[in-house]
Write a structure and sequence with these properties.
The chain has 321 residues and is an alpha/beta fold. It has 13 helices and 9 strands. It has a 7-stranded mixed β-sheet, sandwiched between helices. Strands 7-8 form a two-stranded antiparallel ribbon.
């Protein structure tokens, strides 16, 4: 007979066949949840993460198309649709040497820059993306990125902060087309009397990036940007107060008043793509000859300058080409 005073042994709990997800959830909940299980509580199964190769569930949210640089192809497509009439009927952009643009692989597009609010960048990006079918990332100063709302839209449209590491990743690692204006604010801040006289191309950093990434530089000469929003004079004191490179007074403002701040004059754009410039140097070197870099930078500047002079000689009208 069993002694009633002796405690009866409690049989061990049966093994519970847990799924991987339930086991992870049980471990994560800790010892407190063990007591709840013994008291009759149950684990709530967690949904299994969806694999990349599985179809998206009906009614599920659409994944964002924003890439690691902040560029949105949906926004770019909308921008191209809206901008196309301006490109075709206002600026009447006309290309020459378009076949020099590479259809695959990375390349650094280098062009002259002008206009109080330069129109050359959107014209180049729109033309290449529409007719070549390749996205273009534009390098610019961090000033654009720091502006509320404008900075976000700028990134969604393909703008990237000008940085050697950013340029290298885009060109070498991802094989993209990257647009850069080596003149920077010195080019866009020119007075109208200095039109089509290229400023110094910085310290040649764009050449060194192309050498490191092992990609060609494709020079582009642009005519029409100088007349689309020409600067008549600048208020340097106001520029310092606001914290911008220059505060322009343009012909557009004198002709159109407040609308002149956002309205371009209908100058005809002509763009000439020059043959790609290749460098016979090994890529991914820590340093490159400073004299070689500066020599190549000046050579590319002169290629664009000579092309501009040639295009201006054959131009009969600012408005009709």
């Amino acid at each position: 007979m069993t002694d009633p005073r002796r405690p009866t042994a409690v049989p061990p709990a049966p093994e519970i066949d847990l799924t991987d997800v339930e086991r992870e959830a049980r471990n994560a909940m800790g010892t407190g949840s063990e007591a709840a299980l013994r008291a009759g509580g149950e684990l709530v199964p967690l949904p299994r993460p969806r694999r990349d190769d599985e179809p998206e569930p009906i009614g599920g949210t659409r994944r964002s198309d924003v890439d690691s640089w902040g560029r949105s192809e949906h926004l770019r497509a909308l921008t191209r649709m809206i901008y196309d009439p301006i490109y075709r009927y206002w600026f009447r952009a006309e290309w020459e040497g378009f076949e020099h643009l590479p259809r695959e692989g990375g390349a650094l597009l280098v062009a002259n820059h002008a206009g109080a609010i330069p129109a050359d960048a959107p014209v180049i990006m729109h033309g290449v993306e529409t007719d070549l079918g390749r996205p273009v990332y534009g390098l610019a100063e961090h000033l654009f990125r720091a502006l509320p709302v404008v900075g976000t839209l700028w990134s969604r449209g393909g703008g990237v902060t000008a940085n050697p590491d950013n340029a290298y990743r885009l060109l070498h690692d991802e094989g993209e087309l990257v647009l850069v204006f080596p003149e920077g604010a010195k080019g866009t801040g020119k007075h109208f009397r200095d039109r089509y006289q290229l400023r110094r191309f910085g310290r040649g950093g764009f050449v060194e990036i192309a050498m490191r990434a092992g990609v060609p530089i494709v020079p582009i000469a642009v005519v029409g940007n100088e007349e689309s929003m020409p600067i008549l004079w600048k208020n340097n004191r106001l520029a310092k107060l606001i914290g911008i490179p220059y505060f322009p007074v343009t012909a557009n403002q004198l002709l159109l008043g407040p609308l002149g701040l956002v309205t371009y004059l209908p100058a005809k754009f002509k763009l000439r793509v020059l043959p790609p410039v290749h460098f016979d140097v090994p890529n991914d070197q820590e340093r490159y000859s400073r004299s070689r870099v500066m020599e190549e930078s000046e050579r590319i500047r002169m290629l664009i300058q000579d092309a501009l002079y040639d295009m201006l000689r054959s131009r009969r009208s600012v408005w009709f080409g």
